[in-house]
């Protein structure tokens, strides 16, 4: 009887590692108190800390401007300490003006990580109004003749490039569709996701980074900007795709998106170049492996996505949860997690922004911290309740 009963026990009990979330959030709070002390100017958004000890900040129109405020909201969510709510609100309002920015596809990162978490946790409708304006700004970059949201205004001579990162901004539009009862936002999301499945993914379910479109939506170029080569698998890009299609399934319940997410997950988890600790190299196909950089930001994104994906499948529930836990546990070790008071007070070390451009290589990055905190909160909820409410 015991063996038969075991089949029905949640696979969460099979996780090999127990993560002390209280300790990790405590340490994160100490680090972020340090960032707040060194960043009194809310027009300069914490981005990174160089290996030669220089703080790197960015303006509000930089694609990463929402991650710091979003991380502060996660600290508030876990601790319930109003000091984090106050700081989160301050850094959220610092990006409000970007609601009118129609020159970027990254408004999901900029506004949904900040205002989205703010509205979710406080139900303050003033946050909602900002997001609806921002969603319209993002939707303005969609051309129905192409069927996708334009990422950049130009890339290598092409004037309609679309990057896999753009899948991450569809959650923002799908929220707006529900909040506004506007089918336009929903239709744009479906069109973009479907075209991305068709044109961004190879037969093995790895993805190109950049796809350039021409007249009538014809694909003119499939390549990379931040990966090793046009036909390689840039690791964070694989994470963006995994996360994006997991969200698409959550919000639409369309099985094709669940299948896509699972195919991407299997590509990542079964790749021969995925290290034992499951923190990817910056590109799965870098010929210098194992003598090349890891990307903690890719590990954090993939871990967070797998925690959610584990909720939508029976067949791979245990595999996804345990892989996500291994990744997250690895990130809590001294190999990736900074000592208190070091690393410019960022949480994680060893992320890679764009190695081909020698930009932000083997440094902390604010979005690595954001998805690390998100993964911690998701792990905590799953361990306590067995389910995620997102």
Topology (SSEs and partners):
Layout: H1 2-6, H2 21-38, E1 45-49, E2 55-58, H3 65-79, H4 82-93, H5 107-122, H6 125-139, E3 142-143, E4 148-149, E5 161-163, H7 170-180, H8 183-200, E6 210-213, E7 219-223, H9 235-252, H10 255-269, H11 296-309, H12 317-331, E8 351-354, E9 359-363, H13 366-385
Antiparallel strand pairs: 1-2, 3-4, 5-6, 6-7, 8-9
Characterise this structure.
With 390 residues, the chain is mainly alpha-helical. 49% of the residues lie in helices and 9% in strands. It contains 13 helices and nine strands. The strands form four sheets. Strands 5-6-7 form a three-stranded antiparallel sheet, with no helix packed on it. A hairpin with a 5-residue loop joins strand 1 and strand 2. The longest helix has 20 residues, at 366-385. Residues 1-14 have low confidence and may be disordered. The active site is at residues 106, 165. Substrate binds at residues 106, 165, 224, 236, 240, 354. This is Glucuronyl hydrolase. It comes from Pedobacter psychrophilus.
Write a concise synopsis of the structure shown.
With 390 residues, this protein is mainly α.
CATH topology of the largest domain: Glycosyltransferase
Helix segment tally: 13
Q: What's the number of domains?
A: 3
**What is the average of the pLDDT values?**
95
Describe the strand arrangement of the main beta sheet, using strand numbers. 5-6-7
CATH class of the largest domain: Mainly Alpha
Family: Belongs to the glycosyl hydrolase 88 family.
Organism: Pedobacter psychrophilus
Protein name: Glucuronyl hydrolase
GO molecular function: chondroitin hydrolase activity
């Amino acid at each position: 009887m015991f063996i038969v009963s075991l089949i029905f026990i949640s696979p969460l009990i099979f996780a090999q590692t127990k993560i002390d979330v209280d300790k990790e959030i405590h340490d994160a709070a100490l680090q972020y108190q340090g960032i707040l002390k060194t960043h009194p100017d809310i027009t300069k958004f914490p981005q990174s800390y160089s290996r030669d000890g220089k703080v790197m900040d960015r303006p509000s129109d930089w694609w990463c401007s929402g991650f710091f405020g979003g991380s502060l909201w996660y600290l508030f969510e876990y601790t319930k300490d109003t000091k984090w709510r106050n700081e989160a609100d301050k850094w959220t309002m610092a990006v409000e003006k970007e609601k009118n920015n129609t020159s970027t596809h990254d408004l999901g990162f900029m506004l949904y990580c900040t205002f989205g978490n703010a509205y979710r946790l406080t139900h303050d409708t003033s946050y909602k109004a900002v997001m609806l304006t921002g969603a319209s700004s993002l939707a303005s970059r969609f051309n129905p003749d192409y069927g996708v949201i334009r990422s950049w205004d130009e890339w290598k001579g092409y004037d309609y490039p679309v990057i896999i990162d753009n899948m991450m901004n569809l959650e923002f539009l799908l929220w707006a569709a529900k909040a506004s009862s506007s089918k336009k936002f929903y239709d744009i999301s479906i069109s973009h996701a479907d075209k991305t499945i068709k044109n961004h993914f190879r037969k093995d379910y790895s993805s190109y980074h950049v796809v350039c479109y021409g007249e009538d939506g014809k694909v003119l170029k499939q390549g990379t900007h931040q990966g090793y080569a046009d036909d390689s698998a840039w690791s964070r890009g694989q994470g963006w795709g995994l996360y994006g299609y997991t969200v698409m399934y959550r919000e639409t319940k369309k099985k094709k998106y669940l299948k896509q997410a699972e195919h991407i997950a299997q590509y990542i988890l079964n790749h021969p170049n995925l290290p034992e600790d499951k923190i990817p190299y910056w590109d799965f196909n870098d010929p210098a492996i194992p003598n090349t950089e890891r990307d903690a930001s890719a590990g954090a994104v993939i871990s967070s996505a797998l925690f959610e994906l584990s909720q939508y499948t029976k067949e791979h529930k245990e595999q996804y949860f345990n892989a996500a836990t291994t990744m997250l546990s690895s990130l809590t070790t001294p190999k990736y997690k900074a000592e208190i008071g070091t690393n410019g007070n960022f949480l994680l070390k060893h992320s890679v922004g764009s190695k081909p451009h020698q930009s932000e290589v083997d440094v902390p990055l604010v979005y690595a911290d954001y998805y690390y905190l998100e993964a911690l909160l998701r792990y905590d909820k799953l361990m306590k309740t067995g389910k995620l409410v997102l």
